[in-house]
Description:
- It is built from nine helices and nine strands.
- It has helices at 7-19, 35-47, 75-85, 95-98, 117-120, 124-139, 151-163, 193-214, 220-231, and strands at 2-4, 24-29, 50-55, 89-91, 143-147, 169-173, 237-245, 260-268, 271-279.
- The strands form two sheets. Strands 1-4-3-2-5-6 form a six-stranded parallel beta sheet, sandwiched between helices. The protein has a three-stranded antiparallel beta sheet with strand order 7-8-9, with helices on one face.
- It is globular and about 55 Å long.
- 38% of the residues are buried.
- The structure holds pantoate.
- Pantoate binds at residues 28-30, 58, 61, 128, 131-132, 150, 153.
Amino acid sequence: MRVVSLEREASAITREWSSGGISIGFVPTMGALHEGHLSLVREARARCGKVVVSIFVNPSQFGPGEDLGRYPRMLDADCGLLEREGADLVFTPSPEAVYPEGFSTVVEVTGLTAGLCGASRPGHFRGVTTVCCALFNIIGPDVAVFGEKDFQQLAVIRRMVSDLRLKPGIVQCPIVREADGLAMSSRNAYLSTEERVQAAYIYRGLKAVSGAAGEGETDLAALKCVFMNVLSRAPLLSLSYLEAVDPGSLEPADSLHKTVRLLTAVHAGSTRLIDNISLEPPHASRRTGC
Ligand code: PAF
């Protein structure tokens, strides 16, 4: 496995692979890798001849007062994990290399970025799409792999790739969870012991909604109540949003007559946690109270 920080080195290596007819799978990350990231690397490994992982804490996707300064950075440990997963190249550019003096272009997907996380994190997705577009151009991957935990990010990236006719096929992988159901995230490391215990109520709430839907409840307001009832048992958690949306357009859904994605963001102290679940329409409709 090679670890390179210079763009010209990374591009030279990947261009050589591509010109030799070897397919490239790419996993962009901000490091502090966990099983969720490693599942993406395995997916890339299964699909492609070579696997490239970027580790870059992208300043442009953090808003003022967000956690850019304290975002966990653990390059050596990350490289150890990637070596074991059989990654071929790790690209670790500096912020100055990605955004050299004079850099003044943004790549922005409109519409899809307005609501959900975009509403409380203005500019976040613009930072994500700008850096992903640049990374795609540097690496030239055939496939880029993203996790479903950042469900809105995935929809935004798909839109960008389609609109700008970028090369990689986008592959999505399921959320990887801790034993108590909490979605794996590098930000889980910020949680206090008590916050960590209560954070499990997020997925417990989503599962309770899925259970109620499975028993026939189709009313989305009633289903949201099911979630809120569970969350109310975790006083350290406060809701940022809970939205049922069409999984492709992210438009708000008005009922459960077709598959919807239920997305949530919850604060545990100063830590923002996101999670989501797919809700399938029940075969027979039956109401439950709230
Ligand atoms: O999901 C992430 O870790 C980041 O948003 C990404 C895609 C690596 C862009 O910085």
